[in-house]
Amino acid sequence: MFGSLRNYFSNDLAIDLGTANTLIYCRGKGMVLNEPSVVAVRTDKGNSNKLDVRAVGKEAKSMLGRVPGNIDAIRPMKDGVIANFTVTEQMLKSFIKKVHTPSIFTPRPRIVICVPYGSTQVERRAIKESAEAAGAKEVFLIEELMAAAIGAGLPVSEAIGSMVIDIGGGTTEVGVISLGGIVYASSVRVGGDKFDQAIIDYIRRNYGMLIGEPTAEFIKKEIGSAFVSSEVRELEVKGRNIAEGVPRAFSISSNEVLEALNEPLNQVVGAVNKALEQTPPELGADIAVRGLMLTGGGALLKDLDRLLMEETGLPVVIADDPLSCVVRGCGIALEGIGKIEDSIFCFG
Predict the structure, then answer these.
(1) Does the annotation list 218 as a binding residue?
(2) 298 labeled part of a ligand binding site
(3) pTM surpassing 0.70?
(4) Is 73 annotated as a binding residue?
(5) Which annotated residues bind ATP (predicted)?
(6) Which of 30, 69, 143, 151 could disulfide-link to 325, CB 3.0 to 4.6 Å?
């Protein structure tokens, strides 16, 4: 009796458990949470190294690079899969608690959660078990590409070829979808994190300065670009001079950021070209008319659509609110459990 009452008061959730951000969609409410996938923990060495969670999400991200020795700001997801099971479980518990209205019953929602296309069965099992340990009654897994395509409004169930390029924090996934299934897919471990690291390496190599990930991300968002522009923008940032060992300010231009991003961008373009080569001719004809659909946070990089248009000769469309495409697709799948084809789920 109490179990059925507890389920009645529970709201089912769809979760995009990303490398950079975790987004949650609640049945009947829409998207209710968008927080960085970061957890700040204090290790109690006197108590069998027990983890003491100090902050999760935005508060924890603000601590990156600024924590004392006994506190770690951890990103438990790497390349779209779980790198730290215990911390991921604590993060999910915190987020689920945040989006549920407080009640006398412990909520046990059904959860639809996305997984990268290239993930192994072991990695998928880890994601499923982590969600169950965080309090899920039942877990359904859906591939990120399928969720992104559904969220972008592509006709995934029709006999029409649709190509989606989902650029996340840890991976870029490229896939061709038709008749409710993935015809071709590939995943490369390049995403927003690699873009940030490329900027860090470039500044260290050319300026002799050290900057952190938050600063690199700021540079990318402010003056980052994927294509040469006639307008050259400059940004003043601060870092530590390696030779002098003291903080210094310096200016970097948008053309230099473009040069820094050249290698990871080439990997993205290479993955798209390979997918087009492997696409069956009839579906390729559909894609030539309909174009490529860009989703994920990486799609927000300035002129990325222009770069892909130049390299492929095909039209490129950026999805509405590309950052939330995957969680919206998960939400549509959640609303349709029992009504839509089970084939879109990996297993549940």
Answers:
(1) yes
(2) yes
(3) yes
(4) no
(5) 19-21, 169-171, 217-220, 297-300
(6) 151
